Amino acid sequence: MKNQNLEVLKDYLNSKTSYFLILSGNYGIGKTHFLKKIAIPEISKAYNPISGNNFKPIHISLFGVKSLENLQAQIILSILPIKKRASENTLAVLKPMSRIGLSYLGVKGFDAIESGLRGLLTKVTAPYKDLVLILDDVDRKQDELDIKELFGFVNNLVENEGVKAILVAEESTLASNENELEWSKIIEKTSVRIRFKSNTSLAIENLVHQLGDETYQVFIRSNIEAVKKICEGNGSNLRNLQYALDKCNNVFYNLLEIFKSDKEFERLKEKLLERILVFIYAISIEYREGRISSHNMAEVMQEMSSSYFDHNLLMDMFDSNISGPVEEKQTANKTFSKEAFMGSYYKDTEFVYDFNEAILFYVVNYDVLNLSKLEAEVSKALFELGELNKPEYKLMEQLYYPNVWSLSDKEYVEKTKQILDNCRDGKYDLKHVYYTFNFVLRFDNPLNWPPDELRKELISSTNKSINHQSFDRNLGMNIFDIQDYLEESRSLQQDLLEINKSIKDAKDSKVLDTLWSYFIDNTTAFIEELESRNSSNFDRPFLNNFAPKESFEHIRKGKQENILAFCEALMERYTHTHINKGLELKFLTGFKMMLESSLEKDDNGIMLKSILAESLKKINAILGQAEA
What we know:
Layout: H1 4-13, E1 20-24, H2 31-45, E2 47-48, E3 53-54, E4 56-61, H3 68-78, H4 88-104, H5 110-118, E5 131-136, H6 147-161, E6 164-169, H7 171-175, H8 180-190, E7 191-195, H9 200-209, H10 214-222, H11 224-233, H12 238-258, H13 263-288, H14 297-304, H15 311-317, H16 338-345, H17 357-363, H18 371-387, H19 391-397, H20 409-424, H21 430-441, H22 451-464, H23 475-478, H24 486-521, H25 523-530, H26 548-557, H27 561-576, H28 585-599, H29 606-627
Parallel strand pairs: 1-6, 1-7, 4-5, 5-6
Antiparallel strand pairs: 2-3
Helix pairs in contact: 1-2, 3-4, 4-5, 4-6, 12-13, 13-18, 14-15, 20-21, 21-22, 21-24, 22-24, 24-25, 25-27, 26-28, 27-29, 28-29
């Protein structure tokens, strides 16, 4: 199949013209890739009927270019071949360009710098009229380089020297800085506009081909329809896709290594890895387009994690001065929205949302890939996937779209009654309880259930089976309003979210009890794990639940050097993890008071007194940072 963009460029090269082309298209859709991998090699082979030689393309990015002088220098350097001796031919080629550039800038006297150029220039391999000047990233130039001056400079080269020129940009970005009518006049006088036509399938295949490793290529190709669907929904932005594929590569191979002996992973990995790929791709787009950053991580976690977090706690938990590389398109006024996120990537699709905190932090460069947390979260996802193979969930699948359309009215009513009975028996998780509510009421409520009575029935049966329920951090993202029963569906959502939170609170209480027992029974190991980035038990603030006095007295009963080791571990904890020390301030302040009180005692030995003093310095340093 012919490449339409390439055919347009060939027509331009083969025509007698006095204008330049503007190749316009959205960010990241493959314009630069097309130029480097397809257009420039073809242009280099194209015959110039005027000179009898092949065309000689030079490709220059205007990203960050501030002036015509900068551009002039880049053009000169680009056409200098790597030869050992200078030539009059080179000077003959550069002289007209330099005269045009300098005269356009109001500078005279090219002859005065000619002798300096002679010492730098080497033999050029083509006449001047063979040059095809390709200026990329025109919309990313510095504001100091006036667009009218740039167009005038290029137009002089085209009209006076026979240069072919192609400018590549997102035209709407350039036009936004000019009056619309004035912009149209500038364009009409100097150029012809063509819109870059992106072949998404071909572009994705080229990216996948460049991934290198065959195992990863096979995985991506097995999910190519999912990749293509998200890519097209993102305006075929290939830069975002490339970023996502790079991030997914690392996650992919770490998971293969972590679960290499896990038979359940091997059985379910296709479904699991597809969910992870979709989540990484979605987060990558949100991050690179500025809707997720370290500055709004609290809000993002609040939205994405079933709304069970205390918002003020989260605001303290994420330190806003931590940030990864900033995509040039990020802006502070963009915000993250659960509804927009789910609508863009999950709602009305076959994709299943599965939140993974370790992956979120890694993709947005908030943290390294925490392998311990990754393993814990993926293990939970594996368990949940395994549960879906049970008969009651297989029954539920028959009522999903489009499966449900293969059922008769009678079959639909019978299966709906069955899932309702399963809910009464406590066989479904919270998300599927909500789905049951939807399935019973849709299609004009064939069972004639009063909506609010149905809600009460489902909540009653769920509360009876609460000891068999698990906390679902994805719940808030996976239950949507039911428009025909908006009030009742929102009431049920709230009921289920409250049950979900109560399950989490009970789980957290057990975890804290476990941590305290661990601290008492194995203090040295506890201290070592306290500072670890990869500990799934210590990756959230919990020390405020420990009593400072009992904690200090317990450490002191053991090895005295553990007092200092504990304080050093605290410093490492707040320096090398994302945990905000402010969330454990009550414990830190109380522990400091215990150190001060102990130092004042007269019965301390020399060594213990030294340890207490050094420990107090560490705690004061931590608190000083917290107060700052």
